[in-house]
Amino acid sequence: MNTHVIRAAVGIMILVGLLGTSACFRHHHTPEERADWVTGKIAKHLDLNEQQRAKLDAVKQEMLAARAKVGKERQTLIDDAVAQIQADRLDQAKVLELLERRQELQRQVASQVVPKLEGFHASLTPEQKAKAVEHLRHLQERMGSSLVGM
Description:
Elements: H1 3-26, H2 31-46, H3 50-69, H4 71-86, H5 92-123, H6 126-143
Helix pairs in contact: 1-2, 1-5, 1-6, 2-3, 3-5, 4-5
C-alpha cells in the first residue's frame, strides 16, 4: 500500500478517534451514540455526499464490531492497569506487558477497520482531503505534537 494512503488512513482514524474521545468526555453515551455523533461531525465538516456517508457508515460499523470483539480483553487491560496503580510498587515488566497487549488489540482493530477506511478515503475529493488535513493540523496545534506521534 502506498505511504500516502497509509498516512491518510491513519490521519482519518486519528480524527475519528479524537472526535470520539472528545464526545466521550462530555457525556455518558453508548459507543454507538458516540460513533453516530463522530460520523455526523465528519459528514458535516467534509460535506459528504450519500455515497461517501455510506462508506463512512461502513467504517463506523466495522469499528463498533471490532470494539465489541475486543471488549472483554479491553476490560481486562483496564483492570490490570488499575491493579498496577493501586500497588505499592509499580511492576515495570507488567506495565510493559500491558502496553504490548494494548498495542496488539489496536493492531487487531486496525486490521479490520483499515480496509473499510481505504474505501472511504478513495471516495473523498481532493478538497475534502484538504479539509481533513486542515482539521488535523488544527487539532495538532491545540493538542501539541502528541496527536501525530511520539
